[in-house]
C-alpha cells in the first residue's frame, strides 16, 4: 500500500505552493505526493522543485482548470 500525501495549494500565491510542496517532499518516505495548483506558474515551479529534489513529476489538467501534479521518487 502506498501512502499518498496531498498538498492543496490552490489559491495560494508563489512561493507558497513551492514551500508547501518542499515540506511534503522532505517528510515523504518514498511515498507519492500529489499537489493541486491552479496556475501554470505554480505548476512549473513545483515541477522544477521536484526535479531538483530527484522526484519524478507528471501532471494533468482537471475539468475545473486545476492542475493535479503527481510526484514520485
Characterize the structure shown.
The chain is α+β, with helices and mostly antiparallel strands and 73 residues long. It has one domain (4-72): Translation Initiation Factor IF3 (2-Layer Sandwich), CATH 3.30.110.40. 34% of the residues lie in helices and 32% in strands. The protein contains 2 helices and 4 strands. It has helices spanning 16-27, 40-52, and strands spanning 4-8, 32-37, 56-61, 67-72. Strands 1-2-4-3 form a 4-stranded mixed β-sheet, with helices on one face. The longest helix has 13 residues, at 40-52. It is globular, with a radius of gyration of 11 Å. The two termini are 15 Å apart. The mean pLDDT is 94.
Structural class: alpha+beta
Listing every helix as H and every strand as E from the N terminus to the C terminus, the arrangement reads: EHEHEE
Q: Please count the beta strands (DSSP E, at least 2 residues each).
A: 4
The share of residues in extended strands comes to 25-35%
* Number of continuous helical runs: 2
Strand order of the largest sheet: 1-2-4-3
* CATH class division: Alpha Beta
> Fraction of residues in helices?
25-40%
Detail the poorly predicted runs. none
Alpha carbon gyration radius: 11 Å
The fourth-level CATH homologous superfamily is: TusA-like domain
Give a quick account of the main beta sheet: strands, pairing sense, barrel closure.
4 strands, mixed
Domain tally? 1
Q: What's this entry about, in short?
A:
The protein is α+β, with helices and mostly antiparallel strands and 73 residues long.
Jot down its keywords.
73 residues, Translation Initiation Factor IF3, four-stranded mixed beta sheet, globular, 2 helices
